[in-house]
């Protein structure tokens, strides 16, 4: 990797580090405590950006999968894989922070709300994606996972529609979250959003670099094997 | 496959007891769980046998496109799954004294559409998972999350039909089933060639 690229990455990492600290400061010291929900509302600043980034991660997987099948360049496969992995991490954060917030506010850990249920199904789909990559043979991995990446994402709107229709027959417990937020809260949210986006791209970049290194060493060891052991 | 469906029904009667008051409410659930679990057994054989015997390269050498191979496999799975479902319905009628005859037409439509969706994604994923060592586990993990909309729509529609409501009320559910089938047929058409590459 060239020196300028490395400098750019280092700068990005340092900015992310500072932004994360600023976000923590804003969440716990700058933003006021919400009146009705109390301190637990602060988890919302992490929950919302994480949800957005989980969806973004899966969307990148979808696009990169299409590009891989179209261009047949393994770098797109690596991008799809790394993005799905990070998406699963953020999706897990969403699914953990959600119930922590919901228990004191809605008085239940979980409801079968369309958004919640779709997120859970999405998590299962991409866990399956990662598992599939782990078990298929090397030469088929890129193709299979690209096809599954596309199928999994296309299925999201259908799943959401079905779940919404399914729920509308049952009594709906929670219609809207109704969060009215003040200006300092908005600032905090914007800052955490920025910090989380930076974190996402930082993770994605280093993960893709790692994956490329893995591919390179795999190729090298194959070459070495061919050279020294095939005779 | 049929024997397994039979066993699922028996297990359900042990699990819930026979004197259940609200038994009517869980009929769609029992039926579809039996359909899906038994169907999954048939699915893994769709490509599994080809891989085991090494006949897949021969199939690929035939002068047909991957899409035609997909259609053939899918229709085969579909027919066997439907046979299993008819058998399950018959056994269900006998074991639980439930008469399906008055609802046969709408119920048949829902079952056919749901089974079509199941066969489409099942065939795609069977082709994928047959190459792995953890074949059956992988197949279930791949199929179930994707199959969620069909499970919801099929179970709900079956419940509404058994309640004796008119065809109009299940229209929204039928739309979801049809949309699912069409979208995944198209996706299979576009992507199955990539899966068949060796």
What does this structure look like?
The complex is a heterodimer of chains A (231) and B (198). With 231 residues, chain A is mainly alpha-helical. Chain A contains six helices and no strands. Helices cover 82% and strands 0% of the residues of chain A. Chain A is flat and about 70 Å long. Mean pLDDT of chain A is 86; it is low at 169-176. Chain B is built from seven helices and no strands. In chain B, helix 2 (23-53) runs antiparallel to helix 4 and helix 5 (104-129) packs parallel to helix 7 (171-196). Chain B starts with a helix and ends with a helix. The chains are: A mainly alpha (231), B mainly alpha (198).
Defining key terms:
A: 231 residues, mainly alpha, 6 helices, B: mainly alpha, 0% strand
Short description:
The complex is a heterodimer of chains A (231) and B (198). With 231 residues, chain A is mostly helical. Chain A is built from six helices and no strands.
| Overall geometric form of chain A | flat
Strand content of chain B: under 5%
What radius of gyration of chain B results from the CA coordinates? Answer: 18 Å
Mean pLDDT of chain A: 86
Strand percent estimate of chain A? under 5%
CA radius of gyration of chain A is 21 Å
**Alpha-beta content class of chain B:** mainly alpha
Average pLDDT confidence of chain B is 87
Give the overall silhouette of chain B: globular
Distance between the termini of chain B: 30 Å
Structural class of chain A: mainly alpha
Helical region count of chain B?
7
